[in-house]
Design a protein that fits this description.
Distance between the termini: 70 Å
Largest sheet: 8 strands, mixed
Number of helices: 12
Helix content: 55-70%
Number of strands: 8
Radius of gyration: 38 Å
Shape: flat
Structural class: mainly alpha
Length: 517
Amino acid sequence: MNGQYGKSEAILMDKEILQRAVEEQAGENLAGCIAKAEGIHFNQVYNLRLGYRNILEIDCLWEFTSLARLHLNNNRIEKIVGLEGLINLTWLDLSFNRINKIEGLQSLLKLEVLNLNNNKISVIENMDTLQKLTHFCIANNHIGQLDNVLYLRTFKNLFTLNLFGNPVSKEDNYKFFIAAHFPDLICLDYRVLKEKTKNEAALKYQYVLEEMRREQLQIQQADNAEQSQKAELQLQTDAFVESLNGSYLFKSMFEDDPEAETLQCVPGVDHLLQTFEHHMVDLCTQLFEVGLAEHKQREAEVNAFLSAHAEAVAVHQKKASQILANFEHQHTEKMEEMQQLSDPDVLKVKMNHCNDEINKLCKSFMSLEFQLVRQLEDIIKKLDINISEMVGNFSETVQGIFAQCRDLEDNYNQDIKKIAVATLEQVAKDNLENNMSANVRMLFTDKDTVMDALATGHDNHLVKINDRETLLLTRVNAWKVTLMKGIQDKELKRNRMRLSDIYRYMDHLREHLEELQ
């Protein structure tokens, strides 16, 4: 298979080899000769042919960021590496090499054609990210399992597949198996798949395909449900109210309460807990719904700001373009006129006048930019005021609801104390019900222990409530600060870039003017 190598010595890919290959390609046409004379940059190369060079390892390709086609066929490559930076690659030919594993392709998201013919590959794998793949050639390799070929069913754009010369291609019903499981395939092993073959295959594998469809549908439904759940959780997190749409907070309060389970066995406590939980869940649900509604309002406010900002910038750019178009039309005529002048005094007067026009243009641009800055400052200030008010109102609501949660906990603590005191009295009088558990009897033999347990539980419950309140308030205020800082920083960067563009253009105009002297 690799007889083309002969006895030539294997080489390593380096910049010198790449430069030589690029220059060889560039010399094939007039445009290429000009590019070669002016110097060729690797990041401007779209097609690179490196076949028949006895290359041992792929390397030094990180500068070829615009590369669309890469030919590495008929070399001695054993491993697919060094392709991470080729994010614009659509065509990759690695045929006639010594590769034994498919790997190193995960960053090639735009890849459409992949040729791995005549290698030593035994498993089709590690291609999940190549969802734009249309042509896959892996003829004359070691693919031995038809089920492994089913891995390619996830590639919805695949219409050409070449498995010729692999062990799988010699199995009974090979063509029908492929035709049935890849109904959108057009070409298989260099030949067009006929409709008659597809129909016979579909009939032959009817029940198998139906079962596969059911399984795929279940997988898809489960995946959709998971994605929907993730999206919902992300929405709740963005609204700062995740895990507040149920009894999560209530249950977390009792996680660090060592005697909660024992106290729950005391008559009357279970009812208290159920009532406490019911009211806590009501308050948390109220906060959850308010949080989602407030998030929606904040999002609408930010979107309104972005629209107003974009509109203001667009209007400014239109005005600037009109001013520039008028100036360039007149400036070009004046420059052409001055190039024809032979009288230095007249030329000097004309140049001074032209320089004045350039200064006026600069002032016009600067004035226009100043107006835009003032307008955008007003828009940003309005957003800051509105968002601050929203966050402030939401924070007040949050504090109010959490205050009610603390009141509920205080009431629960007072009620359970009364039951505890009554139970202590019954224990002292040996008046407990017979069905009282041994743990409860032991706990209530010492008043200090009971009261300490209640106090510890009370403190733990309040800590949980306070921590969740602090977390929510801290995050919503941090979001506001980050939002406004990001917007202000972006606007400052835009303004600086605009001023830099104006000054550079003015310098360019003056340099051209000075060349007339």
